């Protein structure tokens, strides 16, 4: 599907979709349990990949009409899957499920789409091998397809912290049901650290004790997963909230408001987007008790933003920077290159088609902004949900039409994204 947007003013009230990160973890945690109910789960292409994996490990997932998931788990012992696990486009699924597969008494094969088959898995495979499993890339290049043979007993392992925090999450979630537990020593500083905080929060909510240590993280073995009262509720997603928030900041009139509901505080580092748009000059009010954010339009100024903890915000910040006056410098961005696409280059190149000048370094992106220079263009969504959504924001204020090719990939994290834009008053057309 291609989507064409024309310049639009936005206003109105929208609801944040449920968090993708919390949904992945709670579906897998429910899989590790005897049984559990997950309410308000995100049902997107990525979270369905995790659900499929839980079923292949012997779990059963029943999705009710209201979106609630009733999950019969595999009770700490994944069965050997009867088929290859297709993780589709989802890095989180591949990392978390690879460690779960290492608990099974047999061999699991994991694969994914072309993008996922180019992302780094090597440090996790080495860690699992150090812990007693066999874990290999079929092409011996650290990328999927992966072949994992368990069971793993546990122990102490060291791993780099600057490639993906998902390796740590994967080891902590699996470690809780090993015999010996797992202690993780970080070889380098941890990037995307708040995502491990999310993991610790979900583990605690499922009655599993895991902790930070002087050298990294640790989880004792022999634990059981069970949420209090048998139920777990997923909070709203701040990476997804970044899009309506940025839309309001760049395309709401000064006397109009975009209201976002479902924005309750949690461990998500991406809630930093509220402070970022505020620092750029937008008029923002976040009522943490009611979980409501109000934003009105204003002229924005370029700022410096460190995305070490918040890699998924880079595309949104790049568009905000393109609209702001002056330079926006995004630092600590190297790990943003290891996502569905190299998002640093993708945003530089696609915004470039819209007349935006950028300066790209390995670890940073400077956007030389100016709203008056944004021109509508035909751009590629790069088969990457966040690139598509960030470019759609640019289309709200560009001069003339903006067409985004391959826009259906928003279903990875935000299936209702274009419906939400329409609810806010955006004029757009979908073409198959
Ligand atoms: O654990 C998670 O839910 C995620 C961790 C982050 O990845 P890295 O840890 O690989 O940076 C983030 O970019 C991804 O969208 C979701
Ligand atoms: C990078 C992302 O997810 P994943 O790593 O799960 O593919 C994302 O949602 O932006």
From TrEMBL:
Q: Where is this protein localized, as stated in its record?
A: Cytoplasm
Residues given in the record as phosphoenolpyruvate binding sites: 20, 91, 119, 166, 343, 386
Q: Which organism is it from?
A: Haloarchaeobius amylolyticus
Assign the protein's first listed, main location to one coarse class.
Answer: cytoplasm
Q: Per the record, what are the reactions this protein catalyses? A: 3-phosphoshikimate + phosphoenolpyruvate = 5-O-(1-carboxyvinyl)-3-phosphoshikimate + phosphate
Q: Name the positions where 3-phosphoshikimate binds.
A: 20-21, 25, 164-166, 192, 312, 339
**BP-aspect Gene Ontology terms:** amino acid biosynthetic process; aromatic amino acid family biosynthetic process; chorismate biosynthetic process
Give GO cellular component annotations, separated by semicolons: cytoplasm
Designated name of the protein: 3-phosphoshikimate 1-carboxyvinyltransferase
Q: Which Gene3D superfamilies match?
A: Enolpyruvate transferase domain
GO MF annotations for this entry?
A: 3-phosphoshikimate 1-carboxyvinyltransferase activity
Q: Which SUPFAM superfamilies match?
A: EPT/RTPC-like
NCBIfam families, from UniProt?
Answer: aroA
Specify the enzyme's EC class, one word: transferase
Concerning InterPro entries, the annotation shows: Enolpyruvate_Tfrase_dom, Enolpyruvate_Tfrase_sf, EPSP_synthase, EPSP_synthase_CS, RNA3'P_cycl/enolpyr_Trfase_a/b
For this protein, the record's HAMAP family field holds: EPSP_synth
**What pathway is it annotated to?**
Metabolic intermediate biosynthesis; chorismate biosynthesis; chorismate from D-erythrose 4-phosphate and phosphoenolpyruvate: step 6/7
Which Pfam family would be a valid example here? EPSP_synthase
The UniProt record lists the EC number as: 2.5.1.19
What domain of life does the UniProt record list for this protein's source?
A: Archaea
């Amino acid at each position: 599907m291609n989507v064409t947007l024309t310049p639009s003013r936005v206003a109105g009230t929208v609801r944040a979709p449920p968090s993708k990160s919390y949904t992945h973890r709670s579906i897998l945690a429910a899989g590790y349990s005897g049984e559990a109910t997950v309410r308000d789960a995100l049902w997107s292409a990525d979270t369905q990949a995790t659900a499929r994996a839980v079923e292949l490990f012997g779990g059963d997932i029943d999705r009710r009409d209201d979106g609630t998931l009733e999950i019969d788990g595999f009770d700490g012992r994944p069965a050997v899957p009867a088929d290859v696990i297709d993780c589709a486009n989802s890095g989180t699924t591949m990392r978390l499920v690879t460690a779960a597969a290492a608990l099974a008494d047999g061999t699991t094969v994991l694969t994914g789409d072309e993008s996922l088959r180019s992302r780094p898995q090597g440090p996790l495979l080495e860690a699992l091998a150090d812990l007693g499993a066999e874990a290999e890339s079929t092409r011996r290049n650290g990328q999927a397809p992966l072949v994992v043979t368990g069971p793993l007993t546990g122990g102490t392992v060291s791993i780099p912290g600057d490639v993906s925090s998902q390796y740590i999450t994967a080891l902590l979630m699996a470690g809780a049901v090993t015999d010996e537990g797992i202690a993780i020593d970080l070889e380098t500083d941890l990037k995307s650290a708040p995502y491990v905080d999310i993991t610790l929060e979900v583990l605690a909510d499922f009655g599993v004790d895991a902790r930070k240590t002087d050298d990294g993280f640790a989880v004792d073995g022999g634990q059981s997963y069970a949420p209090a009262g048998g139920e777990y509720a997923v909070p709203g997603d701040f990476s997804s909230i970044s899009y309506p928030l940025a839309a309001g900041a760049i395309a709401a009139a000064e006397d109009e408001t975009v209201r976002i509901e479902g924005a309750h505080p949690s461990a998500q580092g991406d809630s930093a987007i509220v402070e970022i748009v505020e620092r750029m000059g937008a008029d923002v009010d976040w009522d943490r008790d009611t979980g409501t954010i109000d934003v009105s339009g204003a002229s924005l100024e370029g700022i410096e933003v460190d995305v070490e903890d918040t890699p998924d915000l880079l595309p949104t910040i790049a568009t905000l920077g393109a609209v702001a006056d002056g330079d926006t410098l995004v630092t600590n961005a190297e790990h943003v290159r290891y996502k569905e696409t190299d998002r640093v280059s993708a945003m530089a190149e696609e915004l470039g088609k819209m007349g935006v000048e950028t300066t790209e370094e390995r670890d940073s992106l400077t956007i030389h902004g100016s709203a008056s220079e944004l021109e509508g263009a035909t751009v590629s969504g790069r088969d990457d949900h966040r690139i598509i959504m960030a470019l759609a924001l640019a289309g709200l204020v560009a001069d003339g039409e903006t067409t985004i090719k391959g826009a259906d990939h928003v279903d990875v994290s935000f299936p209702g994204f274009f419906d939400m834009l329409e609810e806010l008053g955006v004029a757009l057309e979908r073409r198959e």
